[in-house]
């Protein structure tokens, strides 16, 4: 899926009928090469099943200085699939990594509460 907005390390998918906002792109951080987040998003999408979609991707702070971590909210694209939403933790060994690994899978049920430590 190609319609998404990236702001300060967070990627938000847009519905197909909604046009992208007319805001200028955020300034790149000095340590981040242009297009790096787009490459990471593309690699993360390759981990998913064809029917799944990333609803939200947020870059997290990592305890290890070189490691890049993302938290994804994933759900199938078909109607009525809200019950199949999951949180995925995805790791890249460094900024320019060409592959990623799945570090966490947490299914979200109607009574699930998630608490993030730190700035969240």
From TrEMBL:
Residues 17-28 have a biased composition (Pro residues). GO terms for molecular function: actin binding; phosphatase activity. Residues 40-120 form the Slingshot N-terminal domain. One of its GO terms (biological process) is negative regulation of actin filament polymerization. Residues 10-39 are annotated as: Disordered. It comes from the Eukaryota. PANTHER family: PROTEIN PHOSPHATASE SLINGSHOT HOMOLOG 3, SLINGSHOT PROTEIN PHOSPHATASE HOMOLOG. This is SSH3 phosphatase. It comes from Elachura formosa.
